[in-house]
Amino acid sequence: MFRNILVHIPSERPVRPVIEVAVALTMARRSHLDAVAIGYESTGTVGMLVGGGGAAIAAVVGAEQERAQERADAAISVFEVEAKLAEIAYGVRSLAAIPAEAGETIGALARLYDMTIVLQPDSSKFSYDNDIPQEILFNSGGPMLMVPYIHKGPLDTHHVGIAWDGSRLAARALRDAMPFLMGAKAVTVIAVNEEASEASSDQLVVHLARRGIAVRVQRLATERSDVQGGILSIAAESNMGLLVMGGYGHSRLQERILGGVTRGIFESMTVPVLMSH
Fold this sequence. Notes:
The protein has about 280 residues and is of the alpha/beta class. It contains ten helices and twelve strands. The chain has two domains: about 140 residues, HUPs (Rossmann fold), CATH 3.40.50; about 120 residues, Rossmann fold, CATH 3.40.50.620. The protein is globular, with a radius of gyration of 20 Å.
């Protein structure tokens, strides 16, 4: 598993965190890694020329597409240097797109891969790159590994934490993360506000033991507004290198909105998180 990996290389934000994680993971698992970068076309200038002639509008659109493509190419070139040095099997794709189409494009592309690696959004800095993780989470149909923008170095999977509430999404993330769990030296189940159910954390321990995965359970009882804070505190205190959790959301008209806990993790994560929806 994870033999076919996609990484999104930001064109407007730091690229090193995702490149370092993606390249090292590809080397360790002898996988194939494809990288995609999107340069975002501005539509504002075109709007200002609505009263102009068709030739003028076409010229502006063409120039904006060229600039967007140059930004994507520049991001991909940084990745290619590292990929060649690591001597991994890789492919690259850079494209220009308007923001409204970029998420749809990469969300569909990600459906072909075992896992997609993305950079954590940074709400303090405006960038269309910030929208990509949510699009991939909800539209790829597979696991997404989100890397904190403060992260340095390869992914550390010696101690993996599982945020468990017995839900379908938690179970999906658990299955998707199985290659990491099988190779971890320590696995901790963080049982979040647990109530009696057939899919309890105690039952999960039994079932993971059948796969040879030894697990300890740490119970978290907290207000819903602080679930993400509790999970991240346990991860930091236990020196976890990876968190596994379901990615929650709900629909508002035709727009997909992140759930509260998932949004909190997006905003404040300090450790890489594998999410599935």
